Amino acid sequence: MGHLIALPLTGLEVPHARYRLTSLRQATVGCGVAFSVNVWERRVLLGVIENHGNGGDTWFNAATCDYREAMREFTAACRWKGDRISEEEVYEHLVDEYDLARAAKRCARKRTSLLRGLDADGDVVRSEEARVPSVWLIRGDYPYMNHLARELHDHQPLPASWQVWDGEQWKDLTLPDS
After folding, report:
1. For the CA atoms of the chain, what is the radius of gyration?
2. Strand, helix or coil at 70?
3. Which of 29, 88, 114, 172 could join 165 in a cystine, given CB atoms 3.0 to 4.6 angstroms apart?
4. 32: helix, coil or strand?
């Protein structure tokens, strides 16, 4: 297996970064969130990643059989924390990466912070936007850190730890006891 590239926001390990996602459409439905997102390689639309939000699978609807095989090879090479994962899990991580990238850009523009809460195993259980520049949280000199800690402590399930996106990587967020 060749060299894998870790995507910055989710950590999904991919064999290449030629695919890009665009036009995420989401709708809350009875059992969850339905979504679709376009998958491109350069100027070629390979297909659409979709989930109907009814508790069913996430799948790739390819534009051609060749694109389906290319995506099958891509997903087979992907890894999560070093382990093989299903095609469906790859699709969901790709959508999460795209959605988080949009949120990170929005936070940078608004001078707010993108936060994520992790469980004891290091899996993401929550994402939040804090109305404070990330540099204050990273330096630990935000004057209302106690207030933020209380707000974050109210989330259920309660994350074991929180991280803040600094524009390039996730940094551990040190919160005072609330």
Report:
1. 18
2. helix
3. 114
4. strand
For residue 94, what are its two tokens? Answer: 């790709």
Cα 80 to the center of its chain, rounded Å: 13
Q: Give the SS3 label for residue 60.
A: strand
Looking at residue 177, its pLDDT comes to 76
pLDDT of residue 137: 94
Structure-token pair, residue 125: 């259980």
Cα distance between residue 98 and residue 81, in whole Å: 19
State residue 169's pLDDT score: 96
CA 142 to chain CA centroid, Å, is 26
Collapsed DSSP state (helix, strand, coil) of residue 145: helix
Question: 81: which DSSP letter?
Answer: T
pTM for the structure as a whole: 0.89
Nearest CA-CA partner of 138 in 164, 177, 104: 164
Series of mean pLDDT values for 10-residue runs along the chain (178 residues): 89 97 91 92 97 89 97 98 96 96 96 95 91 92 91 86 96 85
Torsion 58-63-69-71 (CA) sign: negative
Strands 19-29 and 170-173: unpaired
User: Partners of 84 in the beta sheet?
Assistant: 79
